[in-house]
Amino acid sequence: MNKKVEPRVPMPEQHPKERITNFNEVPYGYTPELAKKEASRCLQCKKPKCKEGCPVEIDIPGFIRLLREGDFEGAVKKIKETNLLPAICGRVCPQETQCEEACVLKKQGQPVAIGRLERFLADWERSQGEDKVSIPKCAPPTGMKVAVIGSGPAGLTVASDLARLGHKVTIFEALHKPGGVLVYGIPEFRLPKAIVVAEVAILKKMGVELITDYIIGKTETVDELLKRFDAVFIGTGAGAPAFMRIPGENLGGIYSANEYLTRSNLMKAYSFPKADTPIHRGKVVAVIGGGNVAMDSARTALRLGANKVMLIYRRTREEMPARAEEVHHAEEEGVEFHFLTNPVRYHGDENGNVKEIECIKMKLGEPDSSGRPRPVPIEGSNFKIPVDTVIVAIGNLANPIVPQTTPGLSTNKNGNIVADENGKTSREGVFAGGDIVTGAATVISAMGAGRKSARAIHSYLLEKAKR
């Protein structure tokens, strides 16, 4: 008879009514006692499937065993053998579809809360003081130099892996703060920016140089970088907004999620006038989309004072790409969900501002290329929803600046850079990974691509040194 699986240990968090009034992080995190109790659920499998489900190959049973034994310092170091960003990954990675999905306990109950344990350890280490934070050891200098374009998850991972191998790495970031989507896309209540700053600081201590306000493709081209670096990695992400291209989309009060979240997150508009960045504070807000960016936009609108926030999605809850936890939090906070609904037109007032969304009801048809049922319009089902603000969060497009200024760099029909499984592009010495290759995806998948690219770049540099 199978032993009953204990339920996972809940993580304390702010009450919904309290948290919609502030931008503080929602979960408080585990205490040492709660973390040990959750770690004790791990079966320490001889052939751990959870590790296979991790794109950056963390020794999950290894760090959980050390945590369970009370060796928090050793557990953190075990994680950092393959992941330099544990506090970030513990918060924003979709563990439920990766490492936790593969956990043996899921067959009988709830999987081990791997992400929460990773987060606990990273937070514990940071609480011990800056001088106590472990810095990975780097190999002796090789004399080889690598330029990394973009300081998002892919770029940070490439930089850390190559620095460990002894290469001199310089990161070029177009914005005024490093972190890419971690700082401009993900809200403070889900990922405090102080955590990004702390984890980027480790890279600097490893000898990585980080140059901000430097736009490759404008300030300097990839070809110019290749004259002074031995290899280049492109990790510029998918930062261009996508729109539906329906009538009325240029009315006032309609924003891309990119602009809306960047103003609030990177430029701290939520603390206006303390931060000198204005932002539109709608009272009746509609968010179009069903992914994590849509959830972030809806939850941000609530915190900026909206009386009503609706999320409009053309499929059902089951097909939503957003993390279950984010959907749950949005529901708790009062976001209204309008499923099987799709905008077809926006109507404006006499001042050119949006006042209504005209929608059509949908039904699910046969699966499309994503494997999800295709939404099909129901003729004659049009109806209108009064709004004063719309945030379009239907995905992002490849950042075009680098591909457009790099002759011979192959791209696909969507503008994404074409690269093989190891990040190698059509240009010698140029590698790419993350959203600029795959299109908008997850933080951890970008990190996984960065890890593979770092290995390929290292091999390329070794071969180059022999010439």
Beta strand %: 15-25%
**Parts with pLDDT < 50 across at least 5 consecutive residues:** none
Shape category: globular
- The secondary-structure class comes to alpha/beta
Q: How would you sum up the major sheet? A: 5 strands, parallel
Q: What is the first-to-last residue Cα distance?
A: 64 Å
Helical content stands at 25-40%
Mean pLDDT: 94
Instruction: Name the strands of the widest sheet in spatial order.
Output: 3-2-1-4-16
Characterize the quaternary organization of these chains: single chain
Number of helices: 17
Query: What is the rounded Rg?
Result: 23 Å
The count of DSSP E runs of length 2 or more, i.e. the number of strands, is 16
Topology, please?
Elements: H1 16-19, H2 32-39, H3 49-52, H4 60-68, H5 72-80, H6 86-92, H7 114-127, E1 145-149, H8 153-164, E2 168-172, H9 181-184, H10 193-205, E3 209-211, H11 222-225, E4 231-234, E5 240-241, E6 254-256, H12 257-265, E7 284-288, H13 292-303, E8 308-312, H14 324-333, E9 336-338, E10 341-348, E11 354-367, E12 373-377, E13 383-386, E14 389-392, E15 396-397, H15 401-404, E16 430-432, H16 435-438, H17 443-466
Parallel strand pairs: 1-2, 1-4, 2-3, 4-16, 6-14, 7-8, 7-14, 8-9
Antiparallel strand pairs: 5-15, 10-11, 11-12, 11-13
Helix pairs in contact: 2-4, 2-7, 4-5, 5-7, 6-7, 8-17, 12-13, 13-14
